[in-house]
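Tip: read the tokens left to right.
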């Protein structure tokens, strides 16, 4: 990539040496900043080359372009064009201007210029990428057929298109084939590393990246990608440490990219200050700002942001669309949003490029989760379990799928591994764990969990009452119905009837010596619970129990 050629360590070094380097030497070292300084100072002092000489202008523009200063390079090309004295071929000049406009996102302007230039291989490659940016699929396919299989430049252009369209394995195949014949094209290792990174093969990505960093340890793009690998393989602190030397340099090339990634490494810190202004500069900025809104619980802002992408083009966009529709389905109780969410997840998980990736399998698991097909969910989650042993979010979803398929003991073990307070405080966490405890015969654990919450969670109480009653855990059912009766603002006869039936069930457990459904203090506990009801039937039942107790004694 052009952007990866920039050197930061060479900046100004040559001016501290006794021997001033040759301009060609600076260019070979990729020290384009040094090249510009050289042109502005030494060349302008030469008697035979004035400061306005065409040669110096062209070399200055060349350096600005390779530094990524496309706007400045474009302005310089325009000045050369307007001077009417240029000895450079006008078609070459216009092509250079069109390329600068392409990098600046001025796609329509670039298209209008390049259309008037005679056909050549560079024009075809530029039109190929313009068709992609302008979403002209018919033109893209047409130009694809014009690329040559024997030209390295055309193959590199095709590989980059595969990358842009998330066909990472296709891009890898091209890069590897070229490197077999062109081992000196060491920069292709960065392209390989990027593809491996996108496929979640972070170890492979770092191996390819190290080959480039060994020769060019000062490459900003390579250092940044290394930080991203560290983030995925280790933690955010290790990732940020990779960038610590770059952070200290003001005005460094790639500042926007570095600041964007620091927001990610710092778990969204500074997102609202940095990401909005980068949306049109770094494609991932929109996605990460959407993630920030989702984590903040603002699904409407996330929807507004992603709604501007009418047709997703890469897996991350499909996934975020799916997540947003899932949250909207929950918020609005909308089956339509639920259907859309499942379709987005399934499109990613079922695609040829993603089906064997970790993310792809997570998407398929998400789709089946929404469809309620939990056996299928487990098929996909089991296949990637080893990558998420200590991941609380994964374990939460895994536990719910286990519970839904009747694997209650395994689900309890998974729930108890979760340490994230945000997840533990979720009502669904308590509800599912309660049900697992009850269906494993540990109804007292479910009651203890409810009491530890110190809340008036009516749904949780109803779950405990109904499930315990259903499987004969009568004493806990009685306590739950009693609590429901007390918390109900309007008297609900169903709660008393449930308590009455549970108390009689507990009495039956005492008579038949079934410890699981009986209270610890026997008949006394049952009578105390019944006395707390205002229903006159309760007194009658208490009298019958006392008479029964006296007969036993």
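Filled-in amino acids:
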């Amino acid at each position: 990539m052009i952007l990866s050629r920039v050197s930061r360590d060479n900046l100004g070094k040559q001016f501290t040496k006794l021997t001033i380097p040759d301009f060609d030497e600076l260019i070979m070292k990729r020290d384009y900043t040094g090249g510009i300084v050289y042109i502005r100072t030494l060349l302008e002092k030469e008697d035979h080359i004035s400061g306005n000489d065409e040669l110096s202008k062209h070399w200055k523009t060349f350096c600005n372009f390779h530094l990524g200063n496309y706007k400045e390079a474009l302005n310089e090309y325009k000045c050369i064009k307007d001077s009417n004295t240029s000895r450079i071929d006008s078609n070459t000049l216009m092509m250079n201007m069109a390329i600068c406009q392409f990098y600046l996102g001025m796609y329509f302007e670039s298209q209008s210029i390049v259309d008037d230039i005679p056909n050549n291989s560079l024009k075809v490659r530029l039109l190929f990428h313009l068709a992609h940016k302008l979403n002209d699929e018919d033109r893209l396919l047409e130009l694809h057929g014009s690329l040559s299989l024997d030209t390295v430049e055309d193959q590199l252009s095709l590989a980059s298109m595969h990358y842009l369209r998330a066909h990472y394995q296709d891009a890898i195949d091209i890069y590897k084939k070229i490197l077999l014949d062109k081992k000196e094209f060491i920069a292709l290792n960065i392209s390989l590393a990027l593809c491996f990174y996108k496929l979640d093969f972070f170890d492979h990505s770092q191996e390819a990246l190290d080959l480039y960093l060994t020769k060019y340890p000062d490459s900003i793009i390579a250092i940044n990608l290394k930080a991203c690998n560290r983030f995925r393989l280790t933690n955010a602190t290790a990732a940020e440490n990779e960038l610590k030397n770059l952070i200290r340099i003001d005005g460094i090339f790639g500042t926007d990219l570095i600041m964007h990634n620091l927001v990610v490494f710092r778990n969204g810190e500074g997102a609202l200050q940095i990401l909005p202004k980068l949306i049109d500069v770094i494609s991932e900025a929109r996605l990460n700002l959407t993630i920030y809104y989702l984590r903040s619980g603002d699904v409407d802002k996330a929807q507004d942001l992603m709604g501007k992408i009418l047709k997703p083009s890469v897996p991350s966009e499909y996934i975020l669309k799916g997540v947003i529709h899932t949250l909207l389905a929950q918020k609005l109780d909308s089956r339509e949003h639920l259907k859309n969410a499942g379709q987005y997840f399934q499109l990613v998980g079922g695609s040829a490029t993603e089906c064997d990736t970790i993310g792809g399998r997570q998407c398929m698991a998400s789709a089946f989760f929404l469809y309620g097909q939990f056996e299928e969910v487990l098929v996909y989650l089991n296949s990637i379990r080893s990558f998420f042993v200590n991941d609380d979010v994964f374990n939460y979803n895994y536990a719910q799928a286990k519970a839904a398929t009747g694997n209650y003991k395994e689900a309890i073990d998974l729930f108890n591994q979760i340490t994230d307070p945000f997840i533990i405080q979720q009502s669904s966490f308590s509800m599912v764990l309660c049900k697992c405890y009850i269906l494993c015969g540990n109804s007292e654990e479910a009651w203890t969990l409810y009491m530890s919450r110190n809340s008036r969670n009516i749904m949780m109480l109803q779950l405990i009452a109904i499930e315990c009653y259903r499987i004969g855990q009568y004493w806990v059912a009685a306590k739950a119905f009693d609590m429901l009766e007390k918390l109900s603002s309007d008297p609900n006869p169903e709660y008393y009837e449930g308590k009455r039936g549970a108390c009689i069930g507990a009495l039956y457990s005492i008579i038949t010596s079934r410890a699981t459904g009986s209270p610890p203090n026997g008949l006394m506990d049952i009578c105390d619970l019944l006395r707390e009801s205002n229903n006159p039937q309760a007194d009658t039942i208490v009298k019958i129990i006392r008479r029964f107790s006296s007969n036993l004694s």
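DSSP finds 32 helices and no strands in the chain. The two ends are 92 Å apart (CA to CA).
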